[in-house]
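Students often ask why inverse folding is considered easier than folding. One informal answer: many sequences map to the same fold, so there is more than one right answer. In these notes we will look at a single instance of the problem. The structure comes first.
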């Protein structure tokens, strides 16, 4: 056997092995984690109006970006601003990030979360926290995180908050501290 025949057989064996290896590798699909991160759709610079069961406006949402998860149909929102109608004027609740459940009955807000009542209707009220759950069908917000609640002449801090946005009833759950700041008489 000549050296050319030996080299030819070696190259043939190498070609068969590499072809078989390539054939086995082609059946592998993309990693599941990469597919799970894909979105059904993305909205940019949008305003969304959600209606309640009675057909009245339940809330209004504005944000620079929203992504709907393909797996569980939840929504991930960047810098959401929720406008929640109430008898005494709408509430404006904003955060750095938001997540909304697939059926829309729960929104979780994280980051710099703040809520502001309409100053034209009654005393202006503001709350600030790092995490908040919004239940739009019940007009409730709640958190277990530290909260600062401010109204004219009073500032309260505590851990945990439950608030009915329609009736403007608030309840700080623990470690409550209150500071009164009387207005100046003239």
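Output (designed amino acids):
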């Amino acid at each position: 056997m000549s050296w050319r025949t030996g080299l030819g057989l070696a190259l043939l064996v190498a070609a068969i092995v590499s072809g078989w290896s390539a054939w086995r590798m082609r059946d592998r699909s993309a990693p599941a984690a990469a597919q799970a991160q894909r979105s059904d759709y993305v909205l940019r610079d949008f305003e969304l109006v959600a209606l309640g069961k009675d057909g009245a406006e339940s809330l209004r949402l504005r944000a620079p970006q929203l992504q709907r998860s393909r797996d569980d149909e939840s929504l991930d929102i960047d810098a959401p601003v929720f406008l929640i109608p109430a008898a005494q004027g709408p509430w404006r609740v904003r955060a750095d990030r938001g997540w909304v459940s697939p059926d829309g009955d729960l929104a979780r807000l994280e980051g710099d979360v703040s809520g502001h009542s309409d100053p034209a209707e009654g005393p202006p009220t503001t709350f600030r926290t790092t995490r908040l759950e919004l239940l739009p069908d019940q007009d409730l917000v709640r958190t277990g995180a530290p909260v600062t609640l401010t109204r004219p002449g009073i500032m309260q801090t505590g851990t945990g908050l439950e608030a009915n946005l329609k009736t403007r009833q608030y309840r700080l759950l623990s470690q409550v501290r209150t500071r009164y700041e009387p207005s100046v008489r003239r």
